[in-house]
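hey m, so remember when u said the tokens were messed up on ur end? i reran from scratch. heres the input so u can diff it against urs
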Amino acid sequence: MGFVKSLGPRRRHEFRPQATGGMLVVVGDELPSAIAAEVSRLPEFRMGVHRIGVRLICGIRVSDVLVSAGRVTRVLGRDRVPFDAAEVIEIEDQSERPLPSGV
């Protein structure tokens, strides 16, 4: 059977008209390895899931980010993850923070 070549981190294509002037962009869900290691040391929000706040390279802060196995899986209160996980430069634990209303 042989071996399977890794295709690298998972990426998805999204259309972001306001942020990119109408261009299709590639968005990844895998956190940088140093950040993923830092997340793994935080207390879990639910079994196997961490709830964090992140700061991106551009300075934007995003709260209520759910991470499992080093991948951003969801942002509470949003339909989709509004950033590329590779852009995360700082995290904060939000496992004890009250849930936003409607979640």
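this time it looks ok to me. The two ends are 45 Å apart (CA to CA). if urs says something different then somethings off w ur setup not the seq
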